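yo

u said u wanted the structure for the complex thing, so here. seqs first:
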Amino acid sequence: MLFFITRRLILTVFLLLLVSMITFAIFFLVPRLAGQNAYELAAQYVGRNPTPGAIKAVEIKLGLNDPLYLQYGRYIKGIVAGIHYNNGPDVSYCPFPCFGYSFRNDQPVWPQLISDAPVTLSIAIGAAVLWLIGGVAIGVLSALRRGSFFDRLSMGIALAGVSLPVFFTGLVSLELFSYKWAIFPNVHYVGITTNPLLWARNLVLPWLTLAFLYAALYARLTRAGMLETMGEDYIRTARAKGLPERRVVLKHGLRAALTPIVTIFGLDLGLLLGGAILTETTFSMPGLGQFTILAIQNQDLPEIMGVVMIASFFIVIANMIVDIMYAVVDPRVRF
Amino acid sequence: MKRRSIFAATALGAMAALLISACSSGGSSSSSGSTPGSTTAAVAFNAGLNSVVNPSSQKGGTLTFDNSSTPDSFDPGNTYYAWVLNFDRLFAMPLFTYKSCPGTCGLQLVPDLATDMGTTSDNGLTWTFHIQSDVKFEDGTTVTSQDVKYAIERTYDRSVMANGPTYYQVLLKDPTYPGPYKDRAKNLMGLTSVQTPNATTIVFNLQAPFPDFPYVLAFPNTAPVPPAKDTGTNYQLHPMSTGPYKFQSYQLNKQLVLVPNTEWNPATDPNAKQLPSKIIMNLNVNQADIDNRLLAGDIQVDSAGTGVAAAAQAKILSNPTLKADSDDPYTGFAFFAYLNTKVAPMNNVHCREAVEYAVNKVNTQTAYGGPYAGGAIASTVMPPNIVGYKKFDLYNALTQSTGDVTAAKQQLAMCGQPNGFTTNLAYRSDRPKETAAATAIQASLALVGIKATLKGYPAGSYYTDFAGAPAYVHSHDIGIAMGGWGADWPDGFGFLDELSAGNTIAPTGNTNIEELNDPVVNNMFKQSNSQTATANQALWPQIDEQIMKDAGILPLIYAKALLYRPTNLTNVYVQAYYGMFNYAVLGVQS
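structre next:
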């Protein structure tokens, strides 16, 4: 197991390096190939009616006139060893891991990512707990009561959950529960350490919105898996031996059906940890997803690089955890 | 089986309880538009344009602003956004400001940190100002003229201060001054064109006479900055306040919290008030969320000042109570189609006049959002809230707003194109309203035989690489280009100079997109430099009319914004220069 984890971590580093190269190429190289020169690129980061001297000054400050391999090398060096940054009257040092300074607001990217991460973590993990418990429970019950009113109703609602986009569900929930009925008024992010109750209250709607979509998927997935495993011979054997039905369902049925659910859960959670873009935008939650949108809108290349690296890291780690969970869930899997 | 039944029943019961409590709790507040507990009498639509709505000196409460985006910077020396210029007056005191009063009174420039409007000498090349002697920073230190000089010096280093206006480098002597950051020992206080003979006097030496110079000093980049407290690019996180409020905390691009500045003396700053106990600015909030929170009274101001979105507009305009709590001011911005004077056949004035007559202004107004959210049909270059505005209508924009096909065809005959001509029409393709307006123009030109091919470009590089790059415009036969303009200060020079003076044509970032180089216009601008600002007020409408005679600009709309004022907001009125509520005087009913 230890060897497995070590090997995966080493591979993670190489993978992140590859992701950084591809992202850098997309956002730094492609504009050049499209004919945009460093001066034109710098003009995007200067205010209104800039003088040529102002654009040139920004071009030099951002290093846009350096060869691309030099810009990339400087970026990677910053992540590993930190960089010095001229902020005007003095020079600041940005320590490891330094993901550079924003082209727009001259602030280091890493602290902004760290500041936004708790918001995304709060939304993603809270919703994940809800959709996992809710989706799996509904899936199990639907499978056990196949063809019943409950089964049809829950799968119908699941279909709605899968079909309705997050921003629609979110806006409807805001309109009803925040503006019209004021059950959750003035939804905005409050840190858990600032006020745990307000933190939870303001996250109920984002949690439910996100969980509604994913729970639907998980319910259908669980139901399909349960229907398959509950029809197996060993289930009949377990019942014939006189085991309690609850034990038959949970220990023998659900456990066998969990493997695909664990797989997809890891992927979903990993993706969400990189930023629940639609949810954060709908509910104005300042997480990594909203950070990503702004970075792209502002064409702020260091911020784009930083958030892509973070998102990639979460996905890779989530996949590693999923692989480890296989051994827990399925005794046949060993490393 | 029994346990599953109990579980299912419990789950269903919980869902039912939630639904029942939801249906029975709370009440709709959005339809009435009133905030619980408010006893303010009903006011009329547009009451805030010319009067103070909910006047109050009540202190206390938390005033909350929301914004759908972020500032370019909260550093007063590094910003150019209109709403930030307005908001900065809560913590920055520049040399001059606009008088805090409703109506056209709000266009009047008045001293703020300065004691008076200053004196000129040396044929207008030297301006001398005195500053108030008892204004303090938030840490209790007294503001001196050297702090004002340093604030101006900072703006010279564009690698650090990339966003703000660049007027000092153009107007003052010593344009090659590198700023106080490079070789700091040598360059700190090294700007020779600005002198500080004593702690309360500051002298500016200009390259050429410029009567509008006090307007330039109304930007917040003249708000004093103590050199020892300047943290460069980090100054935006906590500028040293000289206004009624100071920074308590600022989470970059998320939330700013202001609290009263105990060192602020209201006697030194009559154009600002210190009423709320706390001011919160939330950034990057979904626009629909902002509008709904405004209507629900959860927040008091949408600080962007560009008005509510379409869904809220429909709600407000269809509800008399909500409409009575809103204002629809001119924003000071105008949208145009620039008619290039160098690209054939648009280089013939009669071909341009044909376009002026032919365009259906009603359709373009609709494309921009209609009369409330888009703006009023324009017939002049300057909008009505600019000093020097005079109403005239050379091309029947107001009397035949759907287009004068007959007159257009007459002009086509005069320019030798009786059957029309072809040209390209540039617009910003990532702006839906501009796209719709360009399409409407294309359709109305087609009625007189002018075939305009639409050419869309990204907004981010529209002025630097495309419509604002004359070489590109010529090589791609762009005879018409869409655009908009807002003045840096509300007089004719501020609005018209960069749009139409011959010496402003630039190879990139060009704002004189029609490339007008009319000696009559140029001479009038030159004349304005040797006259006082008051005398120039008669000159601006003449320049406006000449530009329209040249048919270099096709005015489309004077932009407006539908602003909603919650009933718990006090001292509300539109500051004419900003075209939005005056943020420096607002209060909130607790």
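Chain B touches chain A through 64 residues (CB under 8 Å). The CA atoms of residues 44 and 324 of chain B lie 4 Å apart.
cya
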